[in-house]
Amino acid sequence: MSKPKKSFIPLGIAILTVSNKRKGADDTTGFYLSNACTEAGHRVVHHEVLPHNKYQIRERVSALIVNAEVSVIVLNGGTGFASDNQTIPGIRPLLDSEITGFGELFRQLSFVDIGPASMQSQALAGLANRTLICALPGSGGAAKLAWEHLLRPQLDARQGPCNFVPHLLNERCDDGASSCKN
């Protein structure tokens, strides 16, 4: 007996750009991520630019992880070693579990493009309240690399042998309905 074919499940995604320089109109990396998510069939339910302030980042991410429309939060910017980068300290305390392989794979892929400078990326992913939270560097190239090689495949329920989608949906959502978080 063959397994039933899996279906694509559109997820609600929030895009947060962390920058003291970018404003809404020139958020090129945020717009790239929004467009890429939409083109992949997902819904962008929130898109915002935040300053490098770990408490503002934490407050916004906290609000989004309890929002039933949001299954994934993608932050871009503030993940390097500059003194004002606050993304990682802002989100790490919120995580129920960290997905260490995400940062490891991102740095490995990034090494091919930028060499040893890739070790300075603190790219991070984890789960909080059945919400996937991913923190990427703010450069467009880094966001594209993470989206194409890591996020897009793992946000597709058809991806095998496993993907993140079952971790983001409530057990009651066996029909693939969106927004089924606890």
From TrEMBL:
<dbReference type="Pfam" id="PF00994">
    <property type="entry name" value="MoCF_biosynth"/>
</dbReference>
<dbReference type="InterPro" id="IPR012245">
    <property type="entry name" value="MoaB"/>
</dbReference>
<comment type="similarity">
    <text>Belongs to the MoaB/Mog family.</text>
</comment>
<comment type="pathway">
    <text>Cofactor biosynthesis; molybdopterin biosynthesis.</text>
</comment>
<comment type="function">
    <text>May be involved in the biosynthesis of molybdopterin.</text>
</comment>
<dbReference type="InterPro" id="IPR001453">
    <property type="entry name" value="MoaB/Mog_dom"/>
</dbReference>
<dbReference type="GO" id="GO:0005829">
    <property type="term" value="C:cytosol"/>
</dbReference>
<keyword id="KW-0501">Molybdenum cofactor biosynthesis</keyword>
<dbReference type="GO" id="GO:0006777">
    <property type="term" value="P:Mo-molybdopterin cofactor biosynthetic process"/>
</dbReference>
<dbReference type="InterPro" id="IPR036425">
    <property type="entry name" value="MoaB/Mog-like_dom_sf"/>
</dbReference>
<feature type="domain" description="MoaB/Mog">
    <location>
        <begin position="14"/>
        <end position="158"/>
    </location>
</feature>
<protein>
    <recommendedName>
        <fullName>Molybdenum cofactor biosynthesis protein B</fullName>
    </recommendedName>
</protein>
